[in-house]
Amino acid sequence: MPGGDTSSKSDSAAAGLGDAEVLDYLTRHPDFFARNADRLNRILDDGGFEGQRVVDLRGFMVRRLRGELERVADEQTALVSAARANQSTMSRIHTAVQCILDAPSFEALIETVTTDMAVLLDLDVVALVVESDGRTSPPAMAAGVSLVDAGFVGRCLGSADVVLTSHIEGDPAIYGPGASLVRSQVLLGLTVSPEAPRCMLALASRDPAMFEDGMPTDLIGFLARVLERSIRRWLDLPQ
User: Fold this and answer.
1) 174, 131 Cβ separation under 8 angstroms
2) DSSP 142
3) Would you kindly state where each structural domain of the chain is located, as residue ranges?
4) Which of 38, 137, 204, 233 could join 125 via S-S bond, C-beta 3.0 to 4.6 A?
């Protein structure tokens, strides 16, 4: 009817729009939000249309972005902590290697390994395990050097060169009186020489999670290789 209430007709038309019609309109008019940015911002600032419940998309996006930023910050903090820990470990290993190489005698080398290395690596117990051939009487063993039966090292290591275990009780056959302190350990096979008995280096901590299966072993493996070469040199053994 001419001159009638056009607002009621608009409301009726708007009320008849469904999701499909709205999506179709927005698809055909991709610049809709750009053209109406000011009005949409006013709506959001006012909390929505009067008398209606409107989802605050801006608030949702802000919360989402804040969550992403917090996640990235946590990841960066973890990476920095890991890098610092790795740097500290590397520095300790390098210092221990230098002490092994600087040992003025074989006896001093063994003392460095069994006494000084625990302090250098911030550990509780370090032991050098040597298998007996069962035929000859071994010389007096230094503190921290454990003499074991033939095959003991093989039973500890299996086919691996390095074995890490956590949440354990220390083996007195390896650590002697210090076994009560051991809650985690790394065992490293030493291939000194075909003419030498089989040996093993044991590093242990009272922290049950200090050494866990799956941890990187490059640095401590390097330490073991330096040690076996130093022993070989001092005892004048073939490789």
Assistant:
1) no
2) P
3) 10-54, 92-234
4) 204
Cα 71 from Cα 29, distance rounded (Å):
36
Tell me how many degrees the CA angle 94-95-96 measures, rounded to the nearest 5.
Answer: 90
Closest C-alpha among 182, 233, 226, 178 to residue 208: 182
The pair of structure tokens assigned to 227 is 């040690």
For the chain, counts of helices (H) and of strands (E):
10, 5
- Per-residue pLDDT tens for 83-139? 676 777 788 899 999 999 999 999 999 999 988 999 999 999 999 999 987 655 445
Q: DSSP assignment of 190-228, as one string? A: E---TTS--EEEEEEESSTTSS-TT---HHHHHHHHHHH
Instruction: Check residue 9 and give its pLDDT.
Output: 45
Report the CATH fold assignment for 92-234. Beta-Lactamase (3.30.450)
| Residue 98: alpha-carbon gap to chain centroid | 26
pLDDT band, very low/low/confident/very high, at 6 (cuts 50, 70, 90): very low
Average confidence (pLDDT) over 53-75? 72
| Pairing between β-strand 162-165 and β-strand 184-190 as defined by DSSP bridges | antiparallel
Instruction: Write down the pLDDT at residue 117.
Output: 92
Q: Which residue has the tokens 């069994």?
A: 114
Residue 229 backbone dihedrals phi, psi, to 5 degrees: -70, -35
Strand 145-148 with 199-205, pairing:
unpaired
Q: Going edge to edge, which strands form the sheet with 184-190?
A: 145-148, 125-131, 199-205, 184-190, 162-165
